[in-house]
């Protein structure tokens, strides 16, 4: 194993963190459109089910076997699926397309140099995450010699309410996101997972004041994380940067300085970027979006 390991992909939206069962991943009722059925086929794959036979793909997608057979054949031709003996797996064409996702690519390019510095300073696992719905979506992860190689992964998801990156994102997101998380309810990943709305609200208030989140064994016993926010504009959260390590080894006060420095560095890099749709008038620059959020909630181009 090398001194640092990079995991990176951009097509995380179709890769659930883990289904955990062999039951269909679709919602009730088979979609009527070809595109809807294709999505169900893609959604059948996850970290625990990366290679699926036709029968397994049919059962997990909930799409009729004849339709799965026909669509899977076309997807193989296009490189979106691959054959591995009698089984199917996601194809390299998806990886190629994923690398073209602007938000992921721009954020990763801006964050990676500072993440590498942070890894050298702490010798612990470093993550960069964004919000997707009510989940944390990891878009980059760097692992050192003694780093965490389980639980989180690039393009993987974890809940907002029980991760350090998620708490940071919740703290600096609109109230509607918090309300949606509460409405969906909490699921205990460990005996220490935050399960109280009141406790979570207090945690978020403190995080806003300190711009620092600490999560202790809420997602995995024996491990803790510390995270800081990263902004792409004066009031626009781009994501969260974190360090994760065994609870017995991680000294929060020791790594906080390096973590904050890296977060500020990424923020400054994003602030320095110029939107490709910027007006020529310099006085208008303060009103335009950064390229990170350009296609999402900025200039809309």
How would you describe the overall organization of this protein?
The structure is a single chain. By secondary structure, the protein is of the alpha+beta class. It folds into two domains: 86 residues, Orthogonal Bundle (Arc Repressor Mutant, subunit A); 170 residues, Beta-Lactamase. The strands form two sheets. Strands 1, 5, 6, 7, 8, 9 and 10 form a seven-stranded antiparallel β-sheet that branches. Strands 2-4-3 form a three-stranded antiparallel β-sheet. The longest helix is centred in the middle third of the chain and has 21 residues. The radius of gyration is 20 Å and the shape is globular. A hairpin with a 2-residue loop joins strand 5 and strand 6.
Total tally of structural domains: 2
Radius of gyration: 20 Å
CATH architecture of the largest domain: 2-Layer Sandwich
Structural class: alpha+beta
* Fraction in helix: 25-40%
CATH fold descriptor of the largest domain = Beta-Lactamase
Number of H- or I-type helical stretches:
9
Low-confidence stretches: 7-28, 281-288, 295-301
Give a count of the beta strands, DSSP E runs of length 2 or more.
Answer: 10
What is the CATH superfamily label of the largest domain?
A: GAF domain
* Largest β-sheet summary: 7 strands, antiparallel
What distance separates the N and C termini? 43 Å
Shape: globular
CATH top-level class of the largest domain: Alpha Beta
Per DSSP, what share of the residues sits in E-state strands of 2 or more residues? 15-25%
Average pLDDT, rounded to a whole number, is: 81
Order of helices and strands: EHEHHEEHHEEEHHHEEEH
